[in-house]
Amino acid sequence: MPPLRVAVIGTGAFGRNHLRVYRELEAAHPGLVQLAAFVDTDEQRRTLYASQYNIPAFATVNELLDTGLQLDAASVCVPTIHHAAVAELLLLSGIDVLIEKPFAATLAEADHLLSLARERDRILAVGHLERFNPAVTATLAALNKPMFFEAHRLSIFTPRSLDVDVVLDLMIHDLDIVLSLTNSPVYEVRAVGIPILSQKADIANVRVEFESGCVANFTASRISTEQVRKLRLFQPHQYLSLDFARQELLSIDVDPRLVAGLAAVADDPQLAAQFFAQASAASPDPSHPTAGFSLTKADIPKGEPLLLEIEDFLQAIKNRTPPRVSGEAGRAALALALDINDHIAAHTHRAGLA
Question: What's the predicted TM-score (pTM) here?
Fold first, then answer.
């Protein structure tokens, strides 16, 4: 089987990394993939990357398709408002697509692309690359009915994604992950968001309750003084702390004997204090300051999420199997993000900030 010939559409902040990863994979696995072309409206970038990667550059997707260049797949890395138009042209030409998040600007656009992919029997993957973070993969193995999530995603301001608000820019990563971990429909949303530097919300706080009873709090900001990408989840007698940037997962577990012992003396504060003091003296654990708690750091091999995401996309094409983040999953994250934005707009109106 010849290598899959791929193109990158849009080589800005995200697309240039797709170019890099495809070329790295081509060098490592020449039989798997070949970087064949790219598209960018910016002449300077076309000149730069055409020279750097020694591949043809085109100003538009139609210009690329009109050449008759044989392509199997493409990464769509243009601004969100152009996702639907670009992906439609590619799907109609029989090309499998990986679309950067968010999937589309509207649910109608997302549904149209999903329908088109089904009709043309094409692979459609959505680029929620945090799903490929090794720490997230490790978290999946540790799940035991999580009931509370706390997500913080803070970033220093950059003007790279001002076509969307902070929910669609940053928070959508955590929305997608929590949706995949809870596997439950949304019951209720409460949200507030405020524009600070741009014309759209730059900071937002959201509370989502799921039909399972699980609750998730999300905070996202693109005007922070620091970079933070963390998720904590709490489940019976355990909580997990996930650091996306460090690719680390900490597990804090409670000794079930401590739980049972405290339950037996819960109605007598003096007995409870004595029991706890005895338990602390009997089994001190230097990993955690509270008796009966133990802290474990998971042994996780590091990996670049984008590389893992693109490898998954290529394997889905080769085997004609669903990608890890399907179009349906991308639509679910987009639907929740847009619902959150509706609640932010309603709150803004109620607060007299409109």
Answer: 0.91
